[in-house]
């Protein structure tokens, strides 16, 4: 079992920045690619960014390229640095991980096959 706990959400004005964190608890030896998804008001959950464990390769949704940066410092912690935030970035952000779903697959196929999800952290961007 893997538990994912997000933190760092909040209220920010347009143009501002936030950094989200996701801490994963997992049994020793299990390494996972990890990603971030978001769900805006009245919208479906969509892919935001993902990072591979083996080489740190990153993937981004077109809507956040150049503004968001995903990174990880170890096997169990991933970050999402969000700059130049826009009102349309308002959403609940979810951390995701799966032993068998690669970061590339998260970007290509979305979150349907992902096993582990955090409870989410709310990001609100005011205009």
Structure explained in plain terms:
It is a single chain. By secondary structure, the protein is mainly β. 6% of the residues lie in helices and 50% in strands. It has one helix and eleven strands; from the N terminus they run E-E-E-E-E-E-E-E-E-H-E-E. Strands 2, 4, 5, 6, 9, 10 and 11 form a seven-stranded mixed β-sheet that branches. The radius of gyration is 13 Å and the shape is globular. The model has no long low-confidence stretch (mean pLDDT 92).
Main attributes?
7-stranded mixed β-sheet; 4-stranded antiparallel β-sheet
Write the layout of secondary structure elements.
Layout: E1 3-7, E2 10-13, E3 18-25, E4 33-39, E5 45-51, E6 58-60, E7 68-74, E8 77-82, E9 91-98, H1 103-109, E10 116-117, E11 121-126
Parallel strand pairs: 2-11
Antiparallel strand pairs: 1-3, 3-8, 4-5, 4-9, 5-6, 7-8, 9-10, 9-11
Summed up, what is this model?
By secondary structure, the protein is mainly beta.
pLDDT below 50 for ≥5 consecutive residues: which ranges? none
Strand content: over 45%
What number is the mean pLDDT?
A: 92
Computed structural class: mainly beta
Cα end-to-end separation:
40 Å
Helix content: under 10%
Shape designation = globular
The total beta strand count reads 11
The radius of gyration over CA amounts to: 13 Å
Written as H for each helix and E for each strand, in order along the chain, the element string is EEEEEEEEEHEE
- Quickly count the helices: 1
Largest sheet: 7 strands, mixed
